[in-house]
Amino acid sequence: MSISNAIPGASAAATQGASPLAINGLSVAYQKKPVLRGVTFEVNEGELIGVIGPNGAGKSTMIKAALGLIPAIGGEVLVYGKSLKSQRKLIGYVPQRESVDWDFPTNALDVVLMGTYGRLGWYRRPGAKEKAFALDCLSKVGMADFADRQISQLSGGQQQRVFLARALVQDAKLYFMDEPFAGVDAATEKAIITLLQELKRQGKTVIVVHHDLATVKQYFDSVLLLNVELQAFGPTETTFTQEQLQHTYGGRLSFLDPGSLVVSGAGGGGGRP
Amino acid sequence: MSNFFTMLADPNMRWIFFGCMLLGLSSGVIGSFTYLRKQSLVGDTLAHAALPGICIAFMLTGVKSIGIFLIGATLAGIVATFGIGYITRHSRLKQDAALGIVLSSFFGLGIVLLTFIQHGDYGNQAGLDKFLFGQAAAMVGSDVMTMSVMSAFLVTICALLFKQFKLISFDPGFAKGLGYNVGLLEQLLMLLVVVAVVAGVQAVGVVLIAALLITPAVSARYWTNRLGTMIILSGAFGALSGALGTWISSSVSNLPTGPVTVLAATTVFVLSVLLGPERGLLAKRILQARVKRSFLKENEVLHTASGDRMKGETAG
Q1: Interface residue A68 vs chain B (CB under 8 A)
Q2: What's the pLDDT at A5?
Q3: Neighboring chain A residues of B31 at a CB cutoff of 8 Å
Q4: What's the number of domains chain A is made of?
Q5: Which domain holds residue B76?
Q6: Is residue A7 part of a domain?
Q7: Structural domain contains residue A117
Q8: Domain that holds residue A41
Q9: CB-based contact (8 Å) between A242 and chain B?
Q10: pLDDT in tens, A42-53
Q11: Which of A247, B123, B207, B297 minimizes the number of CB atoms within 10 Å of its CB?
């Protein structure tokens, strides 16, 4: 399907200064119903971006379609100005924890090593160099002592950290994380946010599907409000406002205390310095 | 044991023995992946779907050859796979129901064709009906040679693509993200299942081959937490079942080799469930008892300690 509203010359802008992720008119439909319609945005390099929206808004769908995991009925995805296919090695991915069977016969280190498969070629197995790097990444998420542990014997938070270590091993520039904070304990939440800050310091771009509205201001530089269509996208201070949230969630937020959620005043003097 | 060596002294029996071992080995290896991908029933469906494929291949060519049967079974397997996919995508049915529909309709068609062949004037059709439950005794040297080539092919592919098969079995979404063509790899796994089914059709038959795809893999899972070890064990359990099946059926007259092989695999499974370390029933019982004992002991120590303290307090 061709894209009617493509930015002219977007593909030609394959320069060094191109955005880590430029999505143009991305649409996805299951059966006949569109679950994602004409989403267009462009992220800045080195930012932590939260993807926010009610259940069924298409947050995971957007990430999966951007990664090419599910077919889109229209739209274009450019990673650093080039097609997704040619830029796979620049992308790291943390799927939802529930998407796999944790009773699989393997240990934590083995799962992390899967992140190296992309650059190993078809027949090479991970060697000593890859193992050392994987162990390094496991210790970055505080899981070095669990390398040999069968994955079913890890807690939910530990499993999530194994997934994060696997993404770190990918050594990517652009990361997609699908609800990494879902159902984890405080220790893991802290480990994840430390890691996100570290990635940001290294100039990486991280896109995170997020559910907990109370922590959005604290965690993310930019937010993307989604409800089938893109509702708003921009710096957290100016975008994560009561008004925009009402717009995105409909009336469903009215029972929450608005003051605890949004930056005081839409212009945003509060929040981060 | 002398029985065992007299069996091997007979060249015919030797072929059957090796044939059944090879079959157990290859179905054990590929079965590990289908089991971990929760597709054990897909293997069963592909096995049943192979029957009409084999019958049509025979009707068209009039030749009983494993190579031609492989083509027929593969084509039927592809149609069956598409059928399952089509039903799950375009109806509200879940995969188990789709599998049931495809399995039974293909098998029904197979039986119809089989009867048709037996009552039609196809020369040389003798033995085709044995594909239902298999007849290992009918295997000859050339059959086993073909089986060896098929098993070698299957094991080599699994060894070369171990990394990829492991990844798509654990996390196909992540595999796609890395740029692997997951659909193609899945089709390749399906093709290898069909290879194992066709290799086993003479010895065990299409009905029971599913047992050799599932049982050794499930048994192996009880003994290890490593995928590589599990696959090697599963292949070994399959080969052992084949060996036991041939041996037992050759020492007792009138016992069919295929079904005895399946029963041998089941025995290995029961032993694994009971005796497997960590996951086995016995190991779990022992662990529970140990935890309970140490808990009680700790409690006792705690009680006495607090009791002493209380005594001390009243005394002071």
Answers
A1: yes
A2: 43
A3: none
A4: 1
A5: 2-210
A6: no
A7: yes
A8: 22-252
A9: no
A10: 999 999 999 999
A11: B123
